[in-house]
Amino acid sequence: MSRRRMIYEGKAKILYEGPEPGTLIQYFKDDATAFNAEKKAVLDGKGVLNNRISEFLMTRLSAVGIPNHFIKRLNMREQLIKKVEIIPLEVIVRNVAAGTMSKRLGIPEGETLPRAIVEFCYKKDELGDPLVSEEHIAAFGWASQQEMDDIVSLALRINDFMSGLFSAVGIRLIDFKLEFGRHFEGEMVRTILADEISPDSCRLWDYETNEKLDKDRFRRDLGGVTEAYAEVARRLGIIKESAQGGDVIDFTSGMK
Ligand code: 5GP
């Protein structure tokens, strides 16, 4: 595939050295994993859809002043991103009870929460990314107080913006996971959004039917995983219906 230097290989993405200092290339694989990689599959076309959906969301977030690592999409599976030092936290924002929150607290899936709740997990595969408190984060020095203030405020702004964006296309944003990084800009260090935002990292339910349009289709063996991701892309206007009735990914729209 390439003679570029690989920097890191994760479960769903690979990072390569970028063309200029301070840049990386993020490659989206078709691999799907769940339950800390106990369950694995290859889902044809998932990487292409996530590349495009993440590009769309990061571009919209930039436009409303949310700093993030996205620079431009390079091709079907790759995007050029700013190199950051990843803060070792998974930041989860929840609007509706589901997944581990429902299990942990006995709240039925689908119950709207009194307000958006931000949770933190320590990013450590060997430990299964355990839930941690701000006390742990401060005591172990995973992020500074300033970084935590920035992360919470950015996460809530992202939630407001994305809830509206998805609601406009008939999708309920149940919850999602974000990652942030330290971007070194000369003397300054800025906390910016990194990683990806896609149906791999969000719970997205159809407003009318509550049909799941996200990775829970894979986790819970519901089938039609890439079809659901394509439906999200179609509703966001990334995919156009072709004259033959099939989906066509429009790779020209939004190109810089
Ligand atoms: P839960 O804690 O209920 O399993 O997940 C909450 C939200 O964060 C869901 O939208 C889920 O997709 C996302 N999430 C949690 N952990 C991970 C992870 O390790 N990788 C990805 N891609 N998403 C995650």
From TrEMBL:
One of its GO terms (cellular component) is cytosol. Pathway: Purine metabolism; IMP biosynthesis via de novo pathway; 5-amino-1-(5-phospho-D-ribosyl)imidazole-4-carboxamide from 5-amino-1-(5-phospho-D-ribosyl)imidazole-4-carboxylate: step 1/2. One of its GO terms (biological process) is cobalamin biosynthetic process. The keyword Nucleotide-binding applies. Its EC number is 6.3.2.6. GO terms for molecular function: ATP binding; phosphoribosylaminoimidazolesuccinocarboxamide synthase activity. Keywords: ATP-binding, Ligase, Nucleotide-binding, Purine biosynthesis. It catalyses: 5-amino-1-(5-phospho-D-ribosyl)imidazole-4-carboxylate + L-aspartate + ATP = (2S)-2-[5-amino-1-(5-phospho-beta-D-ribosyl)imidazole-4-carboxamido]succinate + ADP + phosphate + 2 H(+). Residues 7-235 form the SAICAR synthetase/ADE2 N-terminal domain. The keyword Coiled coil does not apply. Belongs to the SAICAR synthetase family. This is Phosphoribosylaminoimidazole-succinocarboxamide synthase. It comes from Henriciella algicola. The lineage of its organism: Bacteria, Pseudomonadati, Pseudomonadota, Alphaproteobacteria, Hyphomonadales. The gene is purC.
